Task: inverse folding
């Protein structure tokens, strides 16, 4: 790429101009027009320096940048003196915006799709657009780059050979706990997003269901106040009231202990019945959690049922056969 000294704001290419530019390190670089199609461009998740040269060249060269919030994307384009046209594309206008984008692509346009931060489509709008662009026979080109999912996974100090990305959990506690009970059965590291106003409640639910697992709380990844906390889920939940809740969170939960297996319901009942003959419900549940690989909430509910059945049998004088 040919470079030349940059003015403060770069050189704006007018409509139909063949010269498109961007600025890096005080130099203006020419950006050739990308091939026609939809370019999925990963953008920084915090630190604006985490953009790739290929992404800058593409953003500067396309006809349109489709973005969730033009105000957020403009911070990035102004930082690098990019003057491409910004158009909103988000969940509220997608149905109206998609046909217009498809029409432009049919005319041979080059269009970039970006999210507010990170890789497009990962917990962000874009799936329906990509599907329809492919169905129409237009090219879809991925430009890899920043991702809070992969960044958090890399720094969590937890197994990375297999992981499951959940995205945001349900906001209501009942639905959230039900979903966490399902996730607890997955033999892989779990990655999930959470908001600051719910992270403490989510950690409490996680402690009840997956308390013994190792985990990491990743807050404000790549930003000035980035913070990583590691420990067991139970430990992190106990100190949740000391968390700075401002910002964005990625929670990474380690897989079940290596070699552990999920106990069948029949075997769990046998284990609980045996434990309840000598221990309290609380102690029987704690013992079953360690051995069964099943969620604490599920075990607790079953232990209460079995304890009530035993009480009824005793009150009827039903002690079984001699």
Result:
């Amino acid at each position: 790429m040919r470079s030349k000294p940059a003015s403060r704001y770069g050189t704006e290419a007018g409509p139909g101009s063949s010269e498109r530019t961007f600025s890096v390190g005080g130099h203006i670089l020419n950006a050739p027009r990308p091939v026609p199609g939809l370019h999925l461009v990963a953008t920084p998740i915090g630190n604006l320096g985490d953009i790739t040269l290929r992404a800058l060249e593409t953003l500067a060269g396309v006809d349109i940048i489709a973005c969730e919030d033009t105000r957020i994307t403009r911070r990035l384009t102004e930082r690098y003196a990019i003057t491409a046209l910004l158009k909103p594309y988000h969940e509220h206008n997608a149905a109206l915006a998609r046909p217009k984008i498809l029409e432009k692509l049919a005319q041979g346009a080059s269009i970039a799709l970006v999210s507010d931060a990170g890789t497009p489509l990962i917990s962000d709008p874009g799936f329906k657009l990509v599907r329809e662009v492919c169905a129409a026979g237009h090219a879809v080109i991925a430009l890899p780059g920043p991702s809070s999912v992969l960044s958090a996974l890399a720094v969590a100090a937890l197994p990375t050979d297999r992981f499951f990305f959940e995205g945001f959990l349900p906001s209501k506690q009942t639905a959230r706990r039900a979903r966490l009970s399902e996730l607890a059965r997955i033999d892989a590291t779990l990655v999930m997003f959470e908001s600051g106003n719910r992270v403490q409640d989510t950690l409490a639910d996680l402690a009840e269901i997956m308390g013994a697992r190792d985990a990491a709380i990743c807050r404000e990844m790549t930003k000035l106040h980035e913070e990583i906390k590691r420990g067991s889920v139970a430990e992190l939940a106990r100190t949740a009231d000391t968390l700075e809740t401002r910002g964005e969170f990625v929670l990474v939960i380690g897989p079940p202990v290596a070699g552990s297996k999920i106990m069948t319901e029949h075997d769990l009942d046998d284990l609980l019945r045996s434990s309840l003959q000598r221990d309290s419900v609380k102690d029987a549940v704690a013992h079953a959690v360690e051995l069964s690989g099943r969620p604490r909430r599920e075990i607790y509910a079953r232990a209460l049922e079995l304890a009530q059945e035993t009480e009824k049998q005793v009150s009827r004088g039903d002690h079984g056969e001699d």
About this structure: Residues 1-17 have pLDDT under 50 and may be disordered.
